[in-house]
Amino acid sequence: MERVATAWAIFQGLLLEAIPFLLLGVVIAGLARWLVPQGAWISRLPRHPVLAPITGALMGFALPACECGNVPVARRLLASGAPLGTGFGFLFAAPVLNPIVLASTWAAFPDQPWLLIARPLGAFLLAILLSLLLAQLPEAQLLETALLSERRLSQPLRKLDLLQRGSGLIGAPLPASTGQRPQRPLLRDVLDQSSREFLDLLALLVLGCVIAATVQTWLPRSWLLAIGGAPTGSILALMLLAVVVSVCSSVDAFLALGFAAQVTPGALLAFLLLGPVVDLKLAGLFTVLMRPRAIAITAAAASLGVLLIGQWVNLWQL
User: What pLDDT digit, counting tens, does each position of 94-113 carry?
Assistant: First the structure.
């Protein structure tokens, strides 16, 4: 019963910590849809394979959200027809490249200036790497079915035929462009859609928190920290710890402060880089964006990239 009580306490802590950010992300996505008519600014985003993810990554400074809150915003970007690189660049970089997380990292580690540079730089490079990798997949193999259908409806007819859009009459003449500006959706419709989106994501978040709390209860973090002294072993252990504890990127620096003296610098940075991209809490949320194969590729590539960054930091620092 003691472990069940511990799991329940961890579950409540994770859920209460994540819900405000999830709600914030849904609100931002809804406001963006209502205030800015669809297509008014999406068409101005760069389509270059490198500039697109850079733009998405830098958008985190304007839309501060942790790894839970950025999911609905990234989904709205992709559904509105934004370049894949922009949507995924924002998804992977925004949990670190935002003022709240940078301030919390500085507050937790004011005496380690290298970490204040290495964390945002590493998150930026990781986001670019993952975005470029995922962009190689066809959209039909990359995006979740409902998101793909919604995205195709926002594409101009000159790019997709009616079969691909899944709407319209086959053989009907294509409507000519009128040059009119997109109309703003009704506020009631935006609220309805945002409410449904929040409830759908909340259900997935609850599932992820249950998994994270269960694994964390039966896999004590002390076991992982016991191998913190070995350069490579410490990185792998802290990467696994980041996945298991699933703590929000806004406060993970304070958690890392508790064991920073017991692990190598590369392991500390690995913990702060991998958690905002891959953790058990995100496993369910990512299913509203990507297909299982794309999620697996993301997890594997992010883990490899963080391991290499951690190794390089250990070589540089030790």
Answer: 888 888 788 888 888 888 88
